[in-house]
Amino acid sequence: MADVSHRPGDISGHPDVSEMRDRYAAMLETRGVAAVEELVILAGIYAAISGWTVHFSGALPTLALTNLIVGIALAVVGLCMSVIPERSQDLNFVALLLGAWLIVAPWVVARHPGTGAVLSNVITGGAVCLFALVAGGMLMSKNRRAT
């Protein structure tokens, strides 16, 4: 009868041990990128509800609707980037554009935006731009190390 007993924690005899180590190392390298992109999801959710939390949805309904649409789009883009971080360089550019739109939207969409709406959009849009740039930089440095 064959010896089928396993020693716990010892996989050095496994035929695919080098491939498993490489896959685990690649997963750990992209985990930091996914963590940054999860912040994009949170910023998108905040942007979507900001019209009601900052209380400008009544005075500026078009800006609240714009923030709702852009916030949902950011949350979806962030989710896609978080699920598949190695394919998310193009989506980082989309998140950067959406963040830039959040920054300029109070002046483009509304005639006289209030201070709360302006601060909310500028801070959220700036944070999204920063997150997209950081995630893109992390992916670029990871790709340089891989080649």
Q: What's the SSE blueprint?
A:
Layout: H1 17-53, H2 61-83, H3 89-109, H4 115-146
Helix pairs in contact: 1-2, 1-4, 2-3, 3-4
Question: Would you give an account of this structure?
Answer:
The chain has one domain. The longest helix is centred in the N-terminal third of the chain and has 37 residues. The chain contains four helices and no strands. Helix 2 packs antiparallel against helix 3. The chain is elongated. The model has no long low-confidence stretch (mean pLDDT 84). With 147 residues, it is an all-alpha fold.
Give short descriptive properties of this protein:
147 residues; mainly alpha; 4 helices; 0% strand; transmembrane helix; SPW repeat protein; transmembrane; membrane; SPW
Rounded Rg: 21 Å
Task: Name the helix and strand elements from N-terminus to C-terminus, one letter apiece.
Answer: HHHH
What is the average of the pLDDT values? 84
* Proportion of strand residues: under 5%
Number of strands: 0
Distance between the termini: 47 Å
| Total number of helices | 4
List low-pLDDT spans. Answer: none
- What is the global morphology? elongated
Structural category: mainly alpha
| Helical fraction | over 70%
Outline of this structure?
The chain is an all-alpha fold. The chain is built from 4 helices and no strands. It has helices spanning 17-53, 61-83, 89-109, 115-146.
